[in-house]
Amino acid sequence: MEKESSSEKERKDSRLPLSEVVSDCVKRWFKDALKEAKAGDINMQVLVGQMYFSGYGVPRDAQRGRIWITRASKTRSFWKVSDKHPGYNASDSDSDEQKGDF
Description:
Elements: H1 6-14, H2 18-38, H3 42-54, H4 62-75
Helix pairs in contact: 2-3, 3-4
Keywords: Elongation factor, Kinase, Protein biosynthesis, Transferase
GO molecular function: kinase activity; translation elongation factor activity
Organism: Parasponia andersonii (Sponia andersonii)
């Protein structure tokens, strides 16, 4: 059996449990998302609302979650699809307009 050196033992003793590392990362993620949400980033406002609802990185608070999601829904700007037919999905290509090009 191999003896551990004192430096190896110190390194093992100084390691944090993975759950603490992950918890710290999630808390920092929430703080960063909150900063961006307060600056007006709509996607981050939705994320912060979801994090409050689920208690992910922050104590669960459904009321604050609702406030952030409502804020995002009020400020979200929807662009117009102009002359496209009803049901046109903005992510669809304009391939229906190019059918005669082949």
